[in-house]
């Protein structure tokens, strides 16, 4: 199968039912997306599929054939972070950081669809992303900061 | 703010030593030499030092021996060294260093002794200082107990200052200047001519000098400490480029997962692995203690094959099999024969005057459930074994692996990894032992073991369940007596026992934050009862204080309500410790506390001291049609001295919200010896939509600098229960509260 990840197209020979998460992590060695639960209960594996946030543990190889996948590592880089990543840095959100790849991808997708979400819309969009360190107040602040910076 | 002079000077000396192509700076270990990890070839009897600054031809490496489980330990250790050494904390190389008794933690054992943090009397001080050498000889190279900052604050700055001045002297000698005319900047000595000499160029000459001991810089001159910091891991963690232990890739690596007896321990009756072996990518299925490991070329393939194993499990005997029986074992422990401690026994609670209030409270078993599943990579060869894993106890890991490989401990190298959370989980290492058991069966090939979430969640060592029986009296509008009895398993007995060490004497954890609560109640008694060992239990963020804060602050709130007094005013009247009154006054000020709110709203207050940090919290809730909504959380804490206001706020807020999420939603229950919660959908905790607004204020009046990873947790649950009582009139005495009320 062919799959484009972060702008690079790969030829892969995997089972049709292999989850995208494990295809990324163990076949392509792209480690930004994280394994936390495997059942869509934590959001640590969130990536963008054709621009929309999806749980990569729930999407199979056959479902993404020919699609464009963006991971946290393709969204921006340490030298040129995406505005949402920059907001995360400026608000010093991460503690252990393990969930933050998914949080950033979820927030970036939300703001791409809805550049000025209400607090309730932020709550609704982000509550599938579990942060065991409970960095939520800073996640909220970072999303508001990203909204401001995008609007500026 | 505590002055540096008021902070107790610890007994260490500054030193340096030559290493291959360079120099190491550190501090001599306590009084007697201990094994030095980086100078293994030092002659017998020579004094050794524990290095924190290594400089060789490759440049500067800072050694940050305390593990980073998300609390920012690497960042703050880096800043403490960089502040003195004048290197860029964002770019300097760091290493956890090897497992070594040289990196003993002199604070952990001290806080495990029955001396109240607010009591700085002679007996307490002597007792605490005696714990320092004990920790070393136990080899407690350990991260825990909110001790990283208090334990490292002086040591790392001293090491950095000595390294800087000795490097300056080396430059002064070489270029014929006076050391006082030189300065340092950006990892180099700056000559009066303006020329910069990189530290690496001076390392060998510095190694030949007597190290120069100078006092660390005064707080007034700090560049980074005390100001809002940018954590050194923040850019990588925000861009997905940070690498955890579970992201490690080695050549020819095997991916493995394990499935073990769902009763935690207990053997195997029979197995049929034919289906698993036939699956794509599966290399082997091998036996390990209490189960099997599947080896494959991809983690998902290993996990899928593990589910295809048909195993009949043995059933353990000799301990309660389900939650009802476990509660009964706790209920049965309130007897003289099971009494573990009575550290507080003032006046006569049996003769106290006034109206009697009684209540019973319960806290459930809890899992740490950090988001990164437990994992370890092990490469075994005949000549030695390499271990890559995130651990808070590298020496225990080293020795446990050596016991499995049959090698001397010095042939086992532990490469500590940053961890995607812990909350105490990484004080255990069962999965590292499992990875070692696999590795010895495939010599020469690295094995990366990743537990499935389900395996991790159903095989954790747990925060103990606990029952508290409280009674007290009120008289003339005041709290007159308080008598609290707490029954729980001993975390210390269970956890230290797993390391093969004896835990002698009473376990302070059973009564922590209850017996030492600084309330001047005339008749006051706190009794701990030890429930016989059952399932393995563990230190969970804030340990005993995580349930005892709820018990004592709920009982006190009930007494204050019975007395008709104000919850803040009566606590202030009773608190006999200045710093404790300070945080309670601060939080009342933040919340503009002035009595009941009415209109379906309620506020609750709670106060605890845990790990030496007085912390007070007020929570405001609304009773809505959708349920109880958490509106605001105010936190005030006194840590003695603030090094990073940003991360300090994150730790206090995170601790409180972690506590609230579990108090609202989470419990671990057993049926037929099996943990019933297998994944996060059955073990809910705080989510963004239920998170209240949080406001934090920190005070700096304590004479000692303190850590903040845990102290924010204990007051959160009782503050919420007390707020719900204020809003609805309903007392919540059992956690999780969602069994009794609905949350919006």
TrEMBL record, chain A:
The keyword Iron applies. Its EC number is 1.17.2.1. PROSITE patterns: 2FE2S_FER_2. It comes from the Bacteria. Keywords: 2Fe-2S, Iron, Iron-sulfur, Metal-binding, Oxidoreductase. One of its GO terms (molecular function) is 2 iron, 2 sulfur cluster binding. InterPro entries: 2Fe-2S-bd (IPR002888), 2Fe-2S-bd_dom_sf (IPR036884), 2Fe-2S_ferredoxin-like_sf (IPR036010), 2Fe-2S_ferredoxin-type (IPR001041), Beta-grasp_dom_sf (IPR012675), Diverse_Oxidoreductases (IPR051452). Pfam families: Fer2, Fer2_2. Residues 1-75 form the 2Fe-2S ferredoxin-type domain. PANTHER family: BLR6218 PROTEIN, OXIDOREDUCTASE WITH IRON-SULFUR SUBUNIT. This is Nicotinate dehydrogenase subunit A. It comes from Jannaschia donghaensis. The lineage of its organism: Bacteria, Pseudomonadati, Pseudomonadota, Alphaproteobacteria, Rhodobacterales. The gene is nicA.
UniProtKB/TrEMBL annotation, chain B:
Its EC number is 1.3.99.16. Keywords: Membrane, Oxidoreductase, Transmembrane, Transmembrane helix. SMART domains: Ald_Xan_dh_C. It is an enzyme of class 1 (oxidoreductase). It comes from the Bacteria. One of its GO terms (molecular function) is isoquinoline 1-oxidoreductase activity. The chain crosses the membrane at residues 12-30. The gene is iorB_1. The keyword Membrane applies. This is Isoquinoline 1-oxidoreductase subunit beta. It comes from Jannaschia donghaensis. The keyword Membrane applies. Residues 239-317 form the Aldehyde oxidase/xanthine dehydrogenase a/b hammerhead domain.
């Amino acid at each position: 199968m062919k799959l484009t990840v972060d702008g690079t197209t790969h030829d892969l020979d995997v089972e049709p039912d292999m989850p995208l998460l494990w295809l990324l992590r163990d076949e392509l060695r792209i480690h930004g997306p994280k394994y936390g639960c495997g059942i869509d209960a934590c959001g640590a594996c969130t990536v963008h599929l054709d621009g929309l946030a999806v749980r990569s543990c729930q999407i199979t190889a056959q479902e993404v054939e020919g699609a464009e996948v963006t991971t946290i590592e393709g969204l921006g880089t340490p030298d040129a972070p995406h505005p949402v990543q920059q907001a995360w840095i400026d608000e010093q959100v991460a503690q252990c950081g393990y969930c933050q790849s998914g949080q950033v991808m979820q927030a970036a997708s939300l703001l791409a669809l809805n550049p000025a979400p209400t607090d309730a819309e932020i709550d609704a969009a982000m509550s599938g992303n579990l942060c065991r360190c409970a960095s939520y107040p800073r996640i909220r602040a970072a999303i508001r900061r990203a909204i401001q910076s995008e609007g500026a | 703010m505590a002055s540096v002079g008021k902070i107790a000077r610890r007994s260490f000396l500054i030193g340096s030593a030559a290493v291959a192509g360079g120099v190491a700076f550190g501090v001599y270990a306590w009084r007697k030499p201990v094994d030095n990890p980086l100078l293994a070839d030092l002659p017998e009897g020579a004094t050794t030092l524990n290095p924190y600054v290594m400089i060789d031809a490759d440049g500067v490496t800072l050694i940050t021996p305390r593990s980073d489980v998300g609390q920012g330990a690497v960042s703050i250790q880096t800043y403490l060294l960089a502040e003195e050494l004048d290197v860029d904390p964002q770019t300097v190389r760091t290493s956890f260093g090897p497992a070594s008794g040289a990196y003993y933690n002199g604070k952990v054992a001290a806080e495990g002794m029955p001396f109240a943090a607010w009591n700085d009397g002679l007996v307490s001080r002597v007792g605490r200082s005696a714990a320092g050498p004990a920790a070393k000889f136990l080899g407690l190279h350990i991260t825990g107990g909110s001790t990283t900052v208090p334990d490292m604050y002086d040591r790392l700055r001293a090491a950095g200052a000595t390294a800087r001045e000795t490097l300056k002297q080396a430059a002064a000698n070489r270029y014929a200047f006076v050391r006082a005319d030189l300065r340092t900047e950006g990892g180099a000595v700056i000559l009066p001519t303006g020329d910069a000499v990189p530290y690496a160029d001076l390392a060998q000459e510095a190694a030949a000098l007597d190290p120069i001991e100078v006092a660390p810089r005064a707080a007034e001159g700090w560049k980074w400490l005390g100001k809002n910091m940018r954590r050194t891991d923040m850019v990588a963690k925000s861009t997905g480029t940070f690498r955890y232990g579970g992201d490690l890739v080695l050549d020819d690596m095997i991916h493995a997962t394990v499935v073990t007896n769902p009763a935690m321990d207990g053997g195997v009756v029979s197995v049929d692995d034919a289906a698993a072996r036939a699956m794509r990518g599966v290399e082997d299925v091998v036996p390990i203690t209490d189960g099997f490991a599947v080896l494959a070329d991809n983690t998902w393939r290993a996990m899928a094959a593990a589910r295809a194993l048909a195993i009949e499990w043995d059933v353990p005997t000799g301990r309660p099999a389900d939650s009802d029986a476990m509660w009964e074992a706790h209920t049965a422990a309130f007897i003289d024969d099971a009494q573990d401690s009575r550290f507080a026994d003032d006046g006569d609670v049996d003769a106290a005057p006034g109206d009697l209030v009684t209540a019973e409270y319960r806290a459930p078993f809890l899992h740490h459930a950090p988001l990164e599943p437990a994992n370890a990579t092990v490469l075994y060869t005949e000549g030695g074994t390499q271990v890559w894993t995130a651990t808070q106890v590298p020496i225990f890991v080293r020795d446990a692996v050596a016991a499995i490989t049959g090698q001397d401990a010095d042939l086992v190298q532990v490469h500590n990894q940053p961890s995607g959370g812990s909350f105490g989980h990484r004080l255990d290492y069962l999965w590292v032992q499992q990875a070692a058991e696999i590795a010895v069966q495939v010599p020469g090939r690295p094995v990366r073991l990743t537990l499935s979430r389900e395996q991790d969640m159903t095989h954790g060592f747990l925060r103990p369940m606990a029952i508290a029986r409280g009674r007290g009296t009120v008289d003339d509008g005041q709290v007159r007596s308080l008598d609290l009895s707490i029954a729980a398993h001993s975390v210390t007995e269970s956890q230290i026992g797993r390391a093969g060490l004896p835990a002698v004497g009473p376990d302070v954890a059973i009564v922590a934050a209850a017996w030492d609560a600084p309330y001047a109640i005339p008749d006051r008694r706190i009794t701990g009862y030890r429930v016989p060992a059952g399932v393995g239990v563990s230190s969970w963020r804030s340990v005993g204080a995580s349930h005892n804060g709820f018990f004592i602050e709920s009982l006190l709130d009930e007494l204050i309500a019975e007395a008709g007094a104000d919850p803040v005013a009566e606590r202030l009247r009773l608190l006999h410790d200045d710093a404790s009154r300070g945080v309670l006054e601060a939080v009342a000020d933040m919340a503009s506390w002035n009595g009941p709110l009415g209109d379906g709203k309620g506020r609750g207050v709670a106060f605890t001291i845990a790990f030496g940090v007085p912390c007070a919290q007020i929570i405001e809730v609304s009773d809505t049609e959708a349920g109880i909504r958490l509106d605001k959380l105010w936190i005030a804490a006194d840590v003695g001295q603030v090094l990073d206001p940003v991360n300090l706020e994150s730790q206090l807020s995170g601790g409180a919200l972690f506590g609230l999420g579990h108090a609202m939603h989470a419990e671990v229950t057993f049926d037929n010896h099996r943990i019933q919660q297998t994944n996060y959908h059955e073990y809910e905790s705080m989510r963004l939509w239920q998170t209240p607004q949080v406001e934090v204020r920190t005070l700096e009046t304590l004479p000692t600098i303190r850590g903040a990873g845990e102290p924010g947790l204990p007051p959160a649950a009782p503050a919420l229960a007390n707020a719900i009582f204020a809003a609805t009139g309903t007392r919540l005495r059992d956690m999780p509260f969602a069994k009794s009320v609905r949350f919006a």
